[in-house]
Amino acid sequence: MVKIFIFFSLFTIQLGFAQSGKPSIDVINSSGAVRISFVENEVEAKKLAQIDIENQILVLFLQSGISPITYSNDIIFENKYNLFYFELGCVSHEPSIIESYNFQVFKFLDSKFGKDWRKKIRKDIIGFKEYKKSN
Questions:
Q1: Distance in angstroms (rounded) separating the CA atoms of residues 88 and 68
Q2: One digit per residue, pLDDT tens: the chain, 135 residues?
Q3: Angle at 125 (CA atoms; ends 120, 77), nearest 5 degrees
Q4: pTM (global) more than 0.85
Q5: 19: which residues sit within 8 A by CB, 6+ positions away?
Q6: What is the reported pLDDT for 37?
Q7: Helix (H, G, I), strand (E, B) or coil at 18
Q8: What is the dihedral of CA 86, 81, 101, 34, to 10 degrees?
Q9: 3-state secondary structure labels for all residues of 76-133
Q10: 66 to each of 48, 90, 91, 113, how far by Cα in Å?
Q11: DSSP string, 28-90
Q12: Are 127 and 99 within 8 A, CB to CB?
């Protein structure tokens, strides 16, 4: 009984100190997550997304308002597909620019993983519904 208790205690401690899978601040700062605010049109947004894809820093933008919403499956999805959700909060961005960026990431996910990822992604990702209708 003591051995079982020790095992579960150590296992629980390991889970408590496991990394969340969130990228470091340096990775975020070098990604489109920070630079998207300075993009002026859809073409620039697509180029920014391509640079991030080439650098293997995949970002998907979402906007849930003043109080960010996270779900228990978010981290699982982020880890499986090697990307991270970036909450824009209540800051207003041009929707077409964010959609253009996200569309590029969606296309990459389709080419790399097929369409299976679509069942697991958050449905409130900017532009996801439109992308799904068009593809």
A1: 9
A2: 544 444 444 444 443 333 345 667 677 767 777 889 899 999 999 999 999 999 999 999 998 777 788 888 999 999 999 999 998 887 778 899 999 999 999 999 999 999 999 999 999 999 999 999 998
A3: 30
A4: no
A5: none
A6: 86
A7: coil
A8: 40
A9: HHHHHHCEEEEECCCCCCCHHHHHHHHHHHHHHHHHHHCCHHHHCCCCCECCHHHHHH
A10: 26, 5, 9, 33
A11: HHTSHHHHGGG--SHHHHHHHHHHHHHTT-EEEEE---SS----TTHHHHHHHHTEEEEE-TT
A12: yes
Length of the chain: 135
Residue with tokens 């697509």: 46
